[in-house]
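User:
Care to share a sequence and structure tokens?

Assistant:
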Amino acid sequence: MDLGNGLGHLSYSTLVHAGDTWEDMRASLETYLPQVKARVAPDQPFGVSLRISASSAATLTESSDERARLTGFLTEHDMYVYTVNAFPYGPFKGDRVMERVYEPDWTTEERVTYTNQVADILAEISPPGISPSIQTAPLAFMPKVSGDPYVARFTTNLLRVVAHLVSLEAATGRRVKLALEPEPACFLETTEQTVAFFRERLHAPAGVAELASLCGAPLSEAEGLMRRHLGVVFDIGHQSVGFEDIPHSLRLLTDAGIPIFKLQEAAALWVPELTADLVPQLRVFTDTIYLSQTTLRRDGAVTKFLNLGEALDAFQQEPGAGVAEMRTHFHVPVFLEELGPFRTTRFAVQQALAVHRATPLSDHLEIETYTWDVLPEHLKTGDITDYVTRELEFVRDELTGSGRG
């Protein structure tokens, strides 16, 4: 839904629903979207953040009937697609995902083809007046990055897709935007690393010249085309896990001229002071199919772990090594400040929304709490429609005024 006053479009990520194939995703859309719309936007168009896997992208590319069925459904229910999650290429629900979520990474032809297919689909199904965005992976899982040739390879592939977006706009008049999403344990992890990559690889003379060559544009226009089509997703939860100062990080991006094509409202699990008696309760959150990148901070020193269980093991080995604060990449409902005996980084979401409210950062907002299926049962209240609705109402109220004070 369009929040008005320049605040942008807001929805929730359908990554929360079953959707590894187009058949599954279509069923999820037809089941849940009308229910959510009826509660939060009964009298206005409802924006959709659509998960499109590689399998779904292939189906929609090959079948004009399926694309027509999707656009018909959207029209019938007064909905529109403004953003797509094309980060997870393959299965994301039911089976162990972990670091496989980054595969195939941006060094591969598969990632290029998939992203171009999603762009073509978006140019057809999104309405006039919307410049849809594609959320994509942070280039590569950091342990796989073997050196400069690896970085050069995924940089070139990224620019190839940008060139495709330039050609797509020239052919259709539709501007589609590609947004990289920094995440813990990836090549793009911190905001400072992201700014450095754009400065040193993309916005640098060599990157601009490479794009100019790929899309046949004059060198004088290529940098503008880069900024028109390539930016970032700022996931508030991801950057909170790394103990970033969220308003400062947002200023770093805007000062560097890096477009924030999507501002993603996500909250992480936060333990202000980790103690031995909390460890068994935290172990409940380790039984998940997703990575749970975790950061421990003791006396100003930060230690990073790939999974929550590893962090808890390390703490138990040295329980007296100083006061430990912990944040973990487990998406929790953004409307909650507390989760049982723990806290959440909802405060960081509120900080980012306050910045956005004062000076809009992005025209695409999205809530991405995809962990409903792995949230411990005793922490769930209501069904998934209740949960999604409460999140949307919380963010909308924070931005429009009724949730503040």
Remarks:
- The chain has one domain: 9-268+332-400.
- The chain has 14 helices and 14 strands.
